[in-house]
Amino acid sequence: MWLSILKRGDMRRESQVKVFRPKSLSGLLRLYGKNPESLIFSGGTRIIPLLTKGKNRRINFPEKVIYLGNIGEMFRISRSQRFLDMGACLPISRILSIGRHIIPRVVYEALHSIGNPSIRNLATIGGNICSPTPFNDSLSALNVVDARLELRSQSGTRWIPAGQFIKFNPGEVLTRIRIPLEEWDYQVFRKAGGNQSPTTISFAGTARFAKGILESFHFSIGGVNVKVFRNRDLEAQFEGSKLPVSVREIEAMLSGLDENLGSASTLPNARYRKETALRLFRWFIDNVNQKSIEIL
Amino acid sequence: MPGNRIKLKFTLNEKDVTIECPPGRRLIDIIRLDFKLTGTKEGCGKGECGSCVILMNGNTVNSCIIPAFRLADANIVTIEGLARVKGIPDIRSLFAEIQPLQCGYCASGVQMVLAALLLQNPKPDEREIREALSGNICFCSAYSGLLKSALHVVKHSKKRRYAKRISG
Q1: Cβ–Cβ contact B26 with A under 8 A
Q2: Band of residue B102 on the pLDDT scale cut at 50, 70, 90
């Protein structure tokens, strides 16, 4: 959404900016429905550096800005036996303060890898999901745990899997993130490259063992394509394998992943991205094997 | 054409203040230009270097990426008001004892980060200090000195807090 505002170059002098500060979700949806060209603003850690221009480093906001900081519903956290629901405007540091014993470790590590502590105090989870970073750090972790996103507009509410999120329909806002609370024997998140690097790759993986076999196996890679990569068919190939996973199976899996990534990548430096993704996958499998030996 | 201006009330260094400004004005400009509190420095202007860190509602934030409309009812503490915050030792004098800095441009940001860390965790270990300071870039690369000073602050903070309380 905000990328189109940047491209349009529809910026105003700082004194001509009109800021709406709705206090409820219904108020927000009504406002956004009437002003679909507005910039939705929450943490601002990614958008402000892009909007700050000139010698005086003024923030060149578009004409209309909707600030989400006063909407209490978007700052709520609730936990049931099966799910953890998080409002989209929750600062990342606030989510991390819940602790890694509640949040799935892979999500915790992904959120912890974002920016630095001062940035995490401002940046929100919704902003990280909606901002088009090429490596999709939190989205790859949310995808691997089968998180779902609640998108609301005046016309209704829809839930989509985190991995299928690319863009909004007109007037739609991300309001909630729902994370299933499942037990995993091994969870890992790794980022190859820094937060500012255009070729950073993020990798998230989870595995569950039972009676000497790999019962459940998920992995997701951000940064190989516009959309986060996850292939359930490839995952299914591994599920049910005897632990530790044999070299032959790993090689078969790697060649399968190689084929899938090869046909998917449209970003620059595609070869580097693919090779890094394959290396991260190999590292993940080696760790799954090692962990399984420790546990079983 | 008269522009939009918003009236904001917030607390700055434990004083209630009111300001009328364009909604998109940056917090660092409000602090430095409107209130003439020049202890907060501007580095990259993108929220990456940590020179402009201040405390907003008890949390460290980069003031160069905060627009004015976020300030309503906020509690802002800059380096000038740090000594007045309860529960924090006199970080500036403790820093001066070690003298780790070369140009000192990053000093205010580093001290604000340390203050926030000590408010949340009175006895942080070295790993926690390193993690807290990960968002502060020292342009002179005096990182070992900064870490040494931070450890010195933590080591003496309890003693100084006690002394401060006694002296009233």
Answers
A1: yes
A2: confident
User: Which of A17, A58, A69 is opposite residue B23, by nearest beta carbon?
Assistant: A17
Domains and CATH numbers, chain A: 2-67 (3.30.43.10), 73-180 (3.30.465.10), 186-295 (3.30.390.50)
Q: For residue A72, give how far its alpha carbon lies from the nearest alpha carbon of chain B (Å).
A: 15
One CATH from 3.10.20.30, 3.40.50.2000, 3.40.225.10, 3.30.450.20 for B6-82? 3.10.20.30
pLDDT at B161 exceeding the cut of 60: no
Question: What pLDDT score does A196 carry?
Answer: 74
- Interatomic CA distance for residues A4 and A65, integer angstroms: 14
Instruction: Give the distance from residue B141's alpha carbon to the nearest chain A alpha carbon, in angstroms.
Output: 18
Q: What is the pLDDT of residue A84?
A: 96
- Cβ separation B47–A49 shorter than 8 A: yes
Cβ-defined contact of A18 to B4 (cutoff 8 Å) = yes
Higher-scoring residue by pLDDT: B14, A261: B14
The minimum CA-CA distance between B132 and chain A, rounded to whole Å, is 6
pTM: 0.90
- For the domain spanning B83-167, the CATH number is 1.10.150.120
User: Which residues are CB-neighbours of A259 under 8 A, at least 6 positions away?
Assistant: none
Domain ranges of chain B: 6-82, 83-167
Q: What is the mean pLDDT of each run of 10 residues along chain A (296 residues)?
A: 49 72 95 94 92 84 94 95 96 93 94 94 94 79 96 94 86 95 94 83 94 92 87 90 90 90 73 91 94 83
From residue A78, alpha-carbon distances to A24, A73, A185, A296 in Å are 18, 11, 24, 34
In this complex, which of A59, A93, A115 lies closest to B26 when CB atoms are compared? A59
Of the partner residues B4, B42, B59, the one whose CB lies closest to the CB of residue A15:
B4
